[in-house]
Amino acid sequence: MRIAVLGTGMVGRALADRLDELGHEVAVGTRDVAGTLARTVPDGEVSYAAWQREHPSVRTETFAAAAAAAELVVNATGGTITLDALAAAGAANLAGKVLLDISVPLDFSKGFPPTLFVSGDDSLGERVQAAFPEARVVKALNTMNAEVMVRPALLGDDGHTVFVSGDDAEAKAVVTGLLTSFGHTDVLDLGDITTARGTEMLLPLWLRLMGALGTHVFNFKVVR
Amino acid sequence: MRIAVLGTGMVGRALADRLDELGHEVAVGTRDVAGTLARTVPDGEVSYAAWQREHPSVRTETFAAAAAAAELVVNATGGTITLDALAAAGAANLAGKVLLDISVPLDFSKGFPPTLFVSGDDSLGERVQAAFPEARVVKALNTMNAEVMVRPALLGDDGHTVFVSGDDAEAKAVVTGLLTSFGHTDVLDLGDITTARGTEMLLPLWLRLMGALGTHVFNFKVVR
Description:
Two copies of one chain form a homodimer.
Chain A: E1 2-6, H1 10-21, E2 25-30, H2 33-37, H3 48-54, E3 59-62, H4 63-69, E4 72-75, H5 82-89, H6 91-94, E5 98-101, E6 106-107, E7 115-116, H7 124-131, E8 136-140, H8 146-150, E9 161-166, H9 169-182, E10 186-191, H10 196-200, H11 203-213, E11 219-223
Helix pairs in contact in A: 4-5
Protein name (chains A, B): NAD(P)-binding domain-containing protein
Organism (chains A, B): Actinocorallia longicatena
Keywords (chains A, B): Oxidoreductase
């Protein structure tokens, strides 16, 4: 599949790396292509420039060019810039496409622990769907670390859960297929996009668990 | 141990039943003892009057009398009345005691799904600790159904997680012992009482899961 991954941080790179490995045609979308490719200071394991050299088959393009050519778009941008990044990608380039939204509504401006800038009776997933009504938004993967998202087997064979929320059943089936190809064995459909409120509000617990456990390699399993 | 369970709903009864079964000396605390004992309409499996007949060794007392005689107090009242109920129990009767707080800050006044009336940079657990600074508050069990709280083996032998949050390490050790006696095998200490923000914000996801799974007999396991 031709897939655009919007966002050049750890989440975007983890997704792009794994999708490339699985044989998809991947473009990473960014605001400023030249600026991104000129980043030679490591952020994460390596710099973006070094990461690009290690992934010659992944293209780095503008948000709009990546989204225009894609059949499926992954939003892996930070929550605070998500709506701007998607606007730069262009509503027309998202229309009719599955939009896998991984963004988290964390506000780090007041330090740690961050607070949620959307919660309660709204969610970032809903805001994305409302802003781009023709996109087929599926919220998923936003409850775990990037490594666990794409390589769930890191946590052993016992299984753990990935939630999907969205209004479009066919779009959720496409995302479920993608998650299964990553190795996820328990994809749990919570319902429509308003159920993203619940998974987005899991983040404060996730952050405290990271502190208590001293690792970000963990996940929730719904035992039933 | 002499234990007061404040609250006569499903959570209070489940706790009182299990603690009684385990040999503790249990008093259920309520605002109006005569009124509570006169409740003959089933709410839950049976009415309170019938439940009391089935539990002759459990006393039903005022919030204050139950708390005064107790070594450990369990707050199983609804979130919206928690601070009032604890005020009725009396700050002096809670001073120096372990206060296991199970309450959830759900507001059902606008229908389903309910919203949280405290969240973000505060929690009901913190409000309880702030209002009763001499109580040794431990937030726990607030992330699962009453049956699962007291009979975790209902979900099989694989184990699942119960979180504890609190400022007093000794109080958390006492609560951990109690949870272990219920059958919990994974008691995870998140840290101080501010970590209750995370577990209280898990409720919206819990409610959506109940809808998606069609059961309230499930729990989260932190796989790591």
